[in-house]
What we know:
By secondary structure, the chain is of the alpha/beta class. It is 36% helix and 20% strand. It is built from ten helices and 15 strands. Strands 3-4-2-1-5-6-8-13 form an eight-stranded mixed β-sheet, with helices on both faces. The protein has a three-stranded mixed β-sheet with strand order 10-9-12. The two termini are 34 Å apart.
Amino acid sequence: MKIAITGGTGLVGKQLVQQLQLAGAEIFVLTRNQSHFSNGVHYIQWLSDKSFPEKHLEGINAIINLAGTSLNNGRWSKTLKEEIYSSRITATKEVLRIIKALKTPPEVLINASAIGIYPSSNKSKYTETSTETAHDFLANTVRDWEDTAKRAEDLGVRVVLTRFGVILGKNGGALPMMVMPYKLYIGGTVGTGTQWVSWIHLEDVVEAIIFSINQENINGIVNFTSPNPVTMKEFGKTIGEVLHRPHWFPVPSILMKLALGEKSQLVLEGQNVHPSSLLKANYQFKYPTLKYALENLL
Length: 298
C-alpha cells in the first residue's frame, strides 16, 4: 500500500509514519523542504511554485492530511489566528489539486479535524449525528476545513473527517503542560472543573486512522475520542493519583483568561464527545479509560 501524509513530522504524523512502515506501507511525506529519501520514507516537496508532488504520487491508495499550524504556538493574536486558519485551508486545497492531477485518485482521504466544532456544554452529549455547531473562531475554522476536504467526494474519493479530541502523548500535545504543575506539587482543578475533557491516547489516534483506511464503510465525520470522557476535575485528580501527587491548588478561570486570552477556551470550555462511528465499526480502543492511558504515558 502507498500512502501520502501531510503534516508527517507532527505529533500524530511521526507516530503514524512509524506504524505504517511496520505494516509494510510505502510512505510519502509531503514537506516544504527539498525532496529526498531518508529512513525508508519518500519526502516530497509541496506548497512551492516549483514543486509538482503529483509526479511522485501516482498509484497512492490514501492521503492523510494532518497539515496545519499548531493551536499551541502562543496566544491567539490576529496574525496567529489567520495562520491557523489559512494553513489548514491552503494545505487542503493543495491536496485537492493533487488528487485532480492524478490519473487515478486515491481510494480515501483522511482529513484531520477537531471536536471544537461542537458547542461547549456541560450537559449535551455529542455524536457524529449531532447537528449543533459553535460559531467561534475554532468552530468556524473546523467548519471551513471540513467543507474544503469534502470536495474530494466529487472526485470519487471516500472522505473521513477525523474530529480529534485532546490527544494525549508523551512528547507533545496538551499532556506535558497539564502534568507539569503536579510534578511541582501545585496541581489542581483548572477553572470550574465541570467542563468536559474528551481525550484520546496517541496510539489510538494512529491505530484508528489505519483502521479507517482499511474499513470502506467508514466515511464522513468520525469522532476520535475515548469512549470515556471525564470532567476537568476528574482529569486532574487522575493525574495526581497516577503520579502520587496532591490535587489541591485550584487555578481560577480569570487567571487562565489573563494568561492565555481567547486561547483559554481550550481548557476552560469543553464538550462531551463520543466515538459512536468507531465503536459501531468495532474498533477496539487500546486505552479506553483515562487512568489506563495515563499509567502508560506517565
